[in-house]
Amino acid sequence: MLDPFDPDSFIVRVEAHILGIEPRISRTLELPVGLNLALLHEVLQAAFGWTDSHLHQFLIGGLTFGAPEFDEDGLFDHRTFEATETRLIDFTFSYDEKKPLHILYEYDFGDCWRHHIDMHRVPREQGANYPRCTAGSRSGPPEDVGGTYGYAEFLDAWRDPEHEDHRQMRTWVGKKFEPERFDLEATNKQIGRAMRAAKGGYRFRRVRAS
User: Fold this and answer.
1) What is the pTM of this model?
2) What helix, strand, coil percent values describe the chain, rounded to 5?
3) Nearest to 135 by CA among 8, 6, 29, 5
4) 202 class by beta-carbon count within 10 Å (0-12 exposed, 13-18 middle, 19+ buried)
5) What residue ranges of the chain have pLDDT lower than 50?
6) Angle in degrees, 0-180, between the axes of helices 184-198 and 37-48, rounded to the nearest 10
7) Selecting from 3.40.50.300, 3.40.50.970, 3.10.290.30, 3.30.420.40, what CATH number does the domain 7-138+182-203 have?
8) Which residues neighbour 208 within 8 Å (Cβ) at sequence distance 6 or greater?
9) Which residues pair with 58 in a beta bridge?
10) Phi, psi of 105 (to 5 degrees)
């Protein structure tokens, strides 16, 4: 029986979608409460099919969390707090399921992919392994496609054999890309690989240190 006062009796359910795209590109994730924000970044990258090729940040309660070393010159107009030092359990969750905790995740400041995230605290499922994805819709956009407007133009060309850029777009994105497809099993495999590679923090730091 779950102990309502034991943090390990609960997980965090995340409903995330990319802003500015309809129909929605969304993912439902279930995460251990001890997950830090750097690992949440890794989960989101894997879940949406991103390649961690650009900068990112979390905007939570007026504060910015991420990797502070990317602003060593002080070019940003805000302080970036270290993501590995903040865990999901550090946030206050409402017991009312209709009142989620809202945060914003931004990836690639050029293309500006903004992800709206609702987080709920829910009971842990006995025997389940976390983190995991439980549902989703549509494939994530290709990297460097030009943001929401660029993606709309890309899809016009990708779908229309008569479009002057059709062949170029099909070649660029590869044969495996299908905008309306979501593969739950493949997504969870990607999340598992990301967690093993991250080992508690950002993967890029491990690669850079090796």
Assistant:
1) 0.94
2) 30, 25, 40
3) 29
4) buried
5) none
6) 150
7) 3.10.290.30
8) none
9) 65, 105
10) -115, 125
